[in-house]
Specification:
de novo design (two linked rop proteins), 0% strand, mainly alpha, rod-shaped
């Protein structure tokens, strides 16, 4: 009888341990999903600001068609990106296209003085800051999650339960790592 109680006690401890580890992994996975959703919200906000910015700029920069088309193309690619692995390079391309626009704006003093342009530029800068903070939070969550599913004892449960490593949201091209310089 006591041997049966010992076996049942050990089984109960193992079940409680499994439930605890599994629930912890689910909690971390949900934190990663939430962090990605926060990035997605900010990226959508940036994507929504771009048409307004382009409409404001078009009247002043009619002959800068290539710059405007590059932004539209980059925005389309960024909006179509799925997940951090695709979104990172697409968003970097969009940021580069926007940097090109801001450099061209220097040649248009009337545009630089436009209240609409200044408001949109401020919104875009604010959104870029929010994206940066959201990326950092996402990468922190992914790092904690990936570490947990790859270390003992959680890795014993993580693999069979379908917990897979997540991609960090990162810039892979050295040119994209350069800090943009925008002067107004």
């Amino acid at each position: 009888m006591s041997a049966l109680l010992i076996v049942l006690g050990i089984a109960l401890v193992l079940v409680l341990w499994f439930v605890s580890v599994y629930n912890g992994l689910v909690r971390l996975r949900n934190q990663v999903d939430n962090a990605w959703a926060q990035i997605d919200v900010q990226l959508k906000r940036r994507h929504d600001l771009i048409p307004n910015l382009l409409n404001t700029v078009k009247g002043y920069m009619a002959h800068e068609r290539e710059t405007l088309e590059a932004i539209v193309k980059a925005r389309t690619a960024a909006m179509a990106a799925k997940g951090p692995a695709e979104a990172g390079p697409a968003e970097a391309q969009l940021a580069g296209a926007l940097r090109g626009l801001m450099v061209n704006v220097e040649r248009y003093p009337d545009l630089k003085a436009s209240a609409n342009f200044l408001a949109l530029q401020e919104e875009l800068a604010s959104t870029e800051n929010k994206i940066s903070f959201a990326r950092q939070a996402y990468n922190d969550s992914v790092t904690v999650y990936n570490t947990r599913i790859q270390t003992i004892p959680a890795n014993i449960i993580a693999g069979p339960a379908g917990f897979r490593p997540r991609d960090l949201f990162e810039v892979k091209d050295e040119a994209e790592r350069a800090v943009p310089e925008v002067k107004f």
